[in-house]
Design brief:
This protein is of the alpha+beta class. It has helices at residues 26-29, 65-79, 116-122, 177-208; strands at residues 5-11, 42-43, 49-52, 56-59, 85-90, 94-99, 105-108, 130-141, 144-150, 170-175. It is 28% helix and 28% strand. The strands form three sheets. Strands 7-6-10-8-9 form a five-stranded mixed beta sheet.
Length: 210
């Protein structure tokens, strides 16, 4: 997807030095690269392209990682060397977990493969107010927002095609009725106290000057 940052490593058994031009090093990207992985990758631009040395622009938007590897091997072998081995990783692979979990936030996933239960475990599991039968997944597919729902109490989640999350997925755990009622009650308490205080003040005033 646009704005994905791809780490690309090209190797060759027959000509190892010839592929160095494709491999961004700390020397190429600056000394800060050791502290910032973003500087070690190829950024997918708004048109879905990356720009490889000697090869030029390569359109990768909408492809899986394996498809990107196959495409780059083809492009490099046709234009540069005949036996490239290409490895690709997403450096900024992130998921967002919100709602009734103990540690909501944005999480980086280093191994690029995380299941729904593993993601919820990262966020410290559901709170006691989380609805285990109503976990919402929002995902961008082909430029469109898609929403899916999970019931964590059902074994069917293990066979779901969305059991494993993908880059930029957003999980939301809905609050149960107790949390909703508690939230509404807590919001009304200050207002109720203010009204009662005002009425007591008025009553005291009229009693005093009656």
């Amino acid at each position: 997807m646009p704005n994905d940052n791809l780490f690309i490593r090209v190797t060759s058994a027959l000509n190892s030095s010839a592929v160095d031009i494709f491999n961004i090093s700390q020397g190429q990207s600056g000394s800060a690269a050791s502290n910032n992985l973003d500087l070690l990758g190829y950024l997918v631009d708004s048109r879905g392209n990356i720009n490889l040395p000697t090869v030029g622009e390569v359109h990768v938007a909408g492809l899986t990682k394996d498809e990107v590897i196959q495409l780059l091997q083809k492009e490099i072998s046709e234009k540069y060397i005949t036996d490239p081995v290409v490895n690709v990783r997403i450096l900024n692979y992130k998921i967002t977990i919100l709602g009734e979990v103990n540690k909501p936030g944005v999480y980086s996933v280093m191994d690029e493969r995380i299941s729904l239960p593993q993601a919820l475990a990262l966020a410290g599991d559901l709170t006691i107010y989380g609805q285990r039968r109503n976990v919402q997944l929002t995902r961008i597919e082909n430029g469109e927002k898609k929403t899916y729902y999970f019931d964590l109490t059902s074994p069917e989640i293990f066979s779901s095609p969305n059991y494993y999350l993908v880059q930029n997925d957003v999980l939301y755990v809905s609050p149960n009725g107790t949390r909703v009622r508690s939230s509404t009650t807590n919001q009304n308490i200050p207002l109720t106290i203010s009204i009662v205080t005002a009425l007591l003040t008025l009553a005291s005033f009229f009693i005093r000057y009656k």
